[in-house]
Amino acid sequence: MELTQANVFETLQKYELAENHYFQMGGYTIFYNVKQMGVYVIHEEHVRQFIEFFSGGKNPQQLTKLCDLYGIAQVREDFEALKNIGLLISSELISQQGTVKPPSCHRDRYMSALVVNLCHDCNFRCSYCFANQGLYRKDRRYMDWKTAKATVDFLIAKANPDMKKKKVRLELFGGEPLMNMPVIRKLVAYREEVKEKTGFEIGMSLPTNGLLLTKQRLDFCDEHQIGVQVSIDGPPEIQDRYRKLANGEGSYAAIIDNVKRLIAKRKKINARATIGRNDVHLLEVAKHLIDEVGFASVFIAESTGVEGCSGTASNTAVDLQEINSQLYDVAEEYIRRARNGEVYNLNPFAHAVSRLWNPKIKNDACGAGKGYLTVAVDGSLYPCMRFIDMKEYYLGNVFDGEINEAIRDKFYNNTVDSKEECSHCWGRYLCGGSCVFLPIEYHGSLDKQPQEICDTYRRRFECAMYAMAVLHAEGYQLKNNRYVKVI
Fold first, then answer.
1. Start-to-end Cα distance in the chain
2. What is the C-alpha to C-alpha distance for residues 259 and 294, in angstroms, rounded to an integer?
3. 3-state class of 313 per DSSP?
4. In sequence order, which residues have a C-beta less than 8 Å from that of residue 281 and are 6 or more positions away?
5. Is 355 left (phi over 0), alpha (psi -120 to 50) or beta?
6. Fewer CB within 10 Å: N-end or C-end of the chain?
């Protein structure tokens, strides 16, 4: 058949762009294929205009312009190229796909981990604390050994007995978990007994503010292979502004020696920093914690919540906009360090790059309410620590061993494809729908996402795609978490 504009247009009418996000950043034009999770850099102007022909409704006049500018053969070649890599899909195929249904809630209900609140108490008074300085929604309480032992027994009873590697985890949480060392010591002793009786190995980890991480306690954690993560917000002027001791004084000087001792002993230690209200300094915080203090990585989290439990330091809309602005600077710093052969683990940005390099569809945000639950100090079960003392999300307790599966179903069914807002978002399979508690805190429902938080998620992935585009163009590839030059 003779190649004419008419028959080319007839062919093009049968195709649509795959679901995508198409944007420009730093001089790069990037096409993200949502369902393939593929990132493509569009270099040629004729291909950019061809994509715009499809996104603009396939106007015949626009096709005529393309044919006049580049020739019918080039237009046909662009069509074949985009079709072959999946950026163009048959309209018939699109109609056959229909709506993706959320996975059945009747899947594997085994437990693999529990978050154990050893105390609802803390020796800090952080102004943005979601747990109300450790109090949660009641008063200061501690888990006793009877409850802790029942928690371990509950986890083993709910774990898959046929798993190849019989390994489960306890995350020791609070408040500040090191305030309940007597129970931690008993848990460590009891897990050896459990292993001997059942064959299950119980891994343990804990987050700490660092104040109680003395040499003695650090040696204990080392001896018994307890993972440690430190919550620290950055240099003294930032740390002391938000993370105050119980007496109201700043905490940086009180913890930094303990932190440095931990890093010297273990080397690869992770820090978690929280962004306080009106105080967004992503690169400054990362520089201090990674370059100056010596953490292997830092995870910088927004202080989310309409009011937060404390109501004094949750991020405002202005803060979130500033975070979005600074993410471009983070991308540029990531690129600079990659060129120098450095691993720059400023997260969740570096995590975003890794997810794009090794794409896997993420239908939900985390295992809350599914693969793991949280145990409050009295043995009550909740989907995660942020739901503690919320009666409508009470799942049972570790003593009777029963879980309210009807409530749990809400979390198994809480996928990005089941929620109206998420189902139309280009980033849904990358983020999985964000923290499951945020929709409740912002809107009182599991279904409605806080769009101001979603904007930050989307911006992070855009900047990660930009960093990938620049490094790929310069001949770098990500291997074992490090960019290496291959051409």
1. 42
2. 10
3. coil
4. 234, 238, 326
5. alpha
6. N
